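SagB-type dehydrogenase domain-containing protein: structure, please.
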Amino acid sequence: MGDARHDVPGTASVPVTGGSSGVHRAPGASRRSGLESALAHFHAQSYGKDVARVETLFFGGEPSNGLARPVPGQVRPRLPALAPLRALNAALPALGGPWSPAQRLLAACVEAVRVRRISAADRYPVHRAYPSPRGLFGADLFLLPREGGRWCLRVDPQSHALQPVGDAEALPDLEREGEGEEVLSEARLVVAVDPHRYPPEYGSLRPSLARLEGGHLLATLGLTLTRAGLSPRTHPDPAHLACAEAAPLLPGGMTPIAAISTGPDPGRGAAVPEALEVPGTAEASGAAGAAGASGAPGSNEASQAPPGAVGIAPEATARVAAAASPAGRSLRGWLDERTSGVSTANLVTSAYVSPEAGSAVTAGLTEAFAAVHGALPEPDALRLYRHVLEGDRVDERSVRELRADGSEGPARGVPRTGESNFSATLGYTLAVDFPAWARAHGARHAETVLHTLLGWIAQWGCLGAAATGLCARPMRNYSEEDWAAALGLAPGQTPAYQLWVRSERGTYLDVPVDAAPDTDPPEIP
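Here you go.
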């Protein structure tokens, strides 16, 4: 059994990652000071978090219900936003037919972010294809042009309109015949988050919650773009050029955390097709330079990446999507059924869910874990555990480590201690060695890269649950000390994110929200 860590983890001498020229070192004192600050900040969002009981859903100047309001100048291009993916199967093959790249991209964006149902009997009524704390949705999706930051559009999850942000004067005429097609076919996607959409009682936990949600949205976009027949190159990387260009245009409080491109990307060279790469060393930079946007030898686009940049290749996303997708179901129906369960339901009273019944959840998580494992800054920088009740006996729990190669570690008993006693019959924990991430990505971006990737991995588990009629509830507010001890983590490991699986979906009195008709919206004064 490992001892639980209660203080800020120690630091060590670390390199600063460089670009294609290799590794560079900053002055030791300032580098160490920055790393120590990053470790202390991460500690404040884990062992040292200051979360209080939330007394009401409403806070701030106006009630928040997760639904967007129309904004002046919003447009709906003369393209079908919903028809392309309406009848598409959840599994292969990808969308065929005459749909243009612009139609495919717009449909994938709308399908990923749109409101899918309203739960009249629940405290948190608004549901999308991915989870959000209290259904308040701190993440948004934005579109940028192929190059530069001349304009920025928000994809509205309620009306499916494209809402201008920043300098609306620079916007192209998306409603003019042909122009919308040309502009949208080359658009880049940026996911941005606003932690202040969550209640103040969440305290120092709000930044990590927002990044986690952004990762869930990023994975959902990867799925819908893949099924739309596009090739999404995913960048869970706030240093990506698209994020930098979006930042000055975004609404106040929003911070870009990740980008997706569907063609050759000037902000980031192509990732090695097998998984995710981090070109932070000379060796990694050399490998990146050897495989360009189409895998062509000699391309040096990847070596142009900023320090610590990361990218998930289209092939890796496609493999994870194939592992999680149910057969014989529509994509729309699959995403409609993603749920965390009724908000009032606890984790203990669920009917027994065996590891076999949760196999689709395990498959989604392990395939996603494998997709990023090759780029971990150190072999144990991220680990995945599954904990189960043995034969539905509440006094017998066991845990196994799930490895990226598909193998499993030996089962061992888990004591019922402290808060870890209250748990569902099947659950998963992602544990991290944060100092390794801070050393690899620097004090400025380590938390964002890490939490975005954690959310990206966990979303595939949520989709695996939806594929088999189960619900999966992500958890971030728990006792790290209790769970570190229960899982036997080493002192340097932190239980960073959990996913709990329940059999009772609790979708009572739910009202499905299908697409608004593909017609022009009324004029907004």
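Notes: The first helix runs from residue 28 to 44.
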